[in-house]
Write a structure and sequence with these properties.
2 copies of one chain form a homodimer. Chain A has 414 residues and is α/β, with parallel strands linked by helices. The first copy, chain A, is built from 11 helices and 13 strands. At the A-B interface, helix 7, strand 8 and strand 9 of A face helix 7, strand 8 and strand 9 of B.
């Protein structure tokens, strides 16, 4: 039966379930955040599973789990994969579908007797979700040589550095930059992922072909006021950092609402210090972000928010400092996406073109090698919550589309 | 030298310094919050100092440190005192001045050979500042029989109950209501305290006579939204609990600013859950308060805020629940205050009448026995912060006024 790719729903279900069991039981939903014990266990389990399916696998200096299926000709590579870390109280599909799906592609290729010319590289990228230090896509940044080592000194709320937190899970910050890859030998990277939005479900479509990945401008704002007794300090004598932050939270929402189609603005968290009911707030910290595929609008939104924050602060005698961590929108590769489109059509699956409002490791890989992304539907568009769900049939369709796309990419002679 | 009361600045300075040394060294400023180890040590040190100055002293079932100096006639009592717990990162005077001052009055009476007819009762009230369970004036509530035992089941952020937290510092919640006092035998309670505001300093006045203690309406608001992916969930499909809370923070400020003279509104803290930068906030908790000596305005402010919170929530598909813990304004006793006024005048000290924007144990005692309060100036009006300061000369003037006022109250025959 050479050439017929038949992914097994049972195996995929079991692989997803095995990862779901590795969760922080102290939190609702599914929690396997980067830098935590469950994430160490999760990546070890992926390493073991890669070896079971015959890959030459290892964990690289940046925590990425990388397995290689040797090709007939060698030298050139195709790459696929995603991540297995989660947000706190997240779901069982975001990232996992792309890793489990890649493993199933390998098994299905083996069963169908398919040997590619290219080496097929499967990656479980370390730390894709934003960690408590505010950094996302740690593994793919390192692997593409853009990890900012200044981040190693950033402290969490307990005063521990990101570098120390990495060391605690077995990643040596001194050597992690040795995690690089010969990107000039990679002919295509294709990531399978859940949509995390409602478009595919609404349209009744099986596969989303991703044209662009959103740009993201993350920020941290620090408001500095004066602590005073809340009962004796008149409203006109206060420097209330909390009120300045609250006004800025509303500004984030307002700016995004009046942005272009698909623009988003979110405040992820606010902390008041001290958090005592009878003390005027001395300091407030706020973290948030804007997202859009329109880079020019992101710059405008940054400027508008900075001026709103300054206004909310100045009117209250509060100081404000903002730090931005911008990430440009990324157009994916048209030729690889075209191969995916033909693969999806040949399989008789329905498809739609869309952009990704979520960030992905693929945005970093796209800067180095031709990259495409395949989305499968999310029930109710829900994600980053325990309710996150994708039907197994849809996952299987995605795996078939991924396998066929890789075969088409393999067939291109360079 | 019978009858000449001469407080010792050296002893007062040393007593204040001894308390200041008992602080949580992990926090800036001075921190001796109720339910903490330093507070246990602080009250033990007050107990020891009471015994050193010859008081018959004990710690009662509600954690109050109570010392008695027997009077010549017995049966009737005068009471004075304050508290020695602090807010987190607070100062060295709020409360301490009234306890240390009372001890110095006892020593000065002894040195001057003054024996009162009344028993003189000195109290260091347990837990005056709002604790992490949102309850203030715990000891004076228990001592006046108005402690709400439903509070024992309130949980802190770590899921520990107030009752368990009390037990951990040696206060048995089952028996603490046994802390009651024969208030019908108390002819006057006089509390010496720092002003915690700028009025006395601005006017260059030594002593403040307190006419009323502010009413306080504390609240907790819980906003319930929906957690969603911040990159894929459109602005119009969100139920962002954090934005609803931010709008309500601004409403607290707005309502208080438009309130009557002296009205205050403060948000003490806000918590977003989850606090992840790429997740729409599912739940927000907010704690705050309004203060005024105008009880009617407090009711109006409560209603206005409730409707603002409902509006901020409904417009975003968020739910909101509010709990209120109101505390009525309290007028102090005119006849005891009149005795204090004459004492201050006889000492040749300047005086002003003012109301207290801060809450005090005296507000609870005033419901049971005739009560007055004496304020001494706060430098810059600062309080509940490490910068809190009162000049030693002003503390000494306050102690002299307290001693003379107690002598006048002692001279009244009932």
């Amino acid at each position: 039966m050479d050439g017929v790719i038949a992914p097994s729903a049972d195996r995929v279900r079991e692989d997803l379930a095995a990862l779901a069991r590795l969760t922080d039981s102290a939190q609702p939903g599914w929690t396997r955040t980067a830098l935590s014990e469950p994430d160490v266990a999760g990546r070890e389990s992926v390493l073991a599973r890669m070896r079971e399916v015959g890959l030459d696998a290892r964990i690289d200096p940046a925590g990425n789990v990388i397995g290689v299926r040797r090709g007939a000709r060698g030298g050139r590579m195709l790459m696929t994969g995603s991540h297995t870390d989660t947000v706190p109280s997240g779901g069982r599909f975001d990232g996992m579908v792309g890793v489990v799906g890649a493993l199933e592609v390998v098994r299905a290729f083996d069963e169908a007797g398919i040997r590619l010319d290219h080496d097929l590289v499967v990656v479980d990228f370390f730390g894709e979700e934003p960690n408590r230090f505010g950094l996302s896509c740690v593994g793919s940044r390192a692997l593409t040589g853009v990890f900012d080592t200044a981040m190693l000194d950033v402290l969490d709320e307990e005063g521990r550095s990101f570098g120390d937190a990495l060391a605690a899970v077995g990643i040596d910050p001194a050597t992690m930059m040795a995690s690089t890859w010969p990107w000039d030998r990679v002919d295509a990277f294709i990531e399978l992922h859940i949509e995390q939005g409602p478009m595919l479900e609404h349209a009744g479509t099986s596969i989303g072909l991703v044209s662009s990945i959103t740009g993201i401008s993350r920020f941290r704002a620090l408001f500095g006021g004066r602590r005073d007794h809340a009962g004796t300090t008149g409203m006109d004598r206060r420097a209330d950092a909390g009120c300045a932050a609250a006004g800025t939270v509303l500004a984030v929402e307002r700016i995004a609402r009046s942005g272009p189609d698909g623009a988003k603005g979110t405040t992820g968290g606010v902390t008041f210090t001290p958090a005592a009911v009878n003390v005027v707030t001395e300091a407030a910290e706020m973290r948030g972000e804007f997202r859009s595929i329109d880079d020019e609008w992101l710059r405008t939104a940054e400027e508008t928010l900075a001026s709103c924050a300054a206004e909310e602060s100045a009117g209250r005698g509060v100081t404000v400092e903002m730090e931005w961590l911008p990430q440009a929108p990324r157009r994916l590769d048209g030729s690889v996406t075209e191969m995916c489109r033909r693969a999806v059509d040949d399989l008789g699956l329905s498809r739609a073109e869309l952009f990704s409002g979520a960030e992905h490791d693929a945005a970093f890989i796209a800067a180095r090698s031709p990259t495409a992304m395949l989305f499968v539907p999310s029930v109710g568009g829900r994600s980053h919550c325990p309710e996150e769900w994708t039907e197994l049939d849809d996952v299987i369709d995605g795996i078939r589309a991924l396998a066929e796309s890789l075969r088409r990419a393999d067939a291109v002679r360079r």
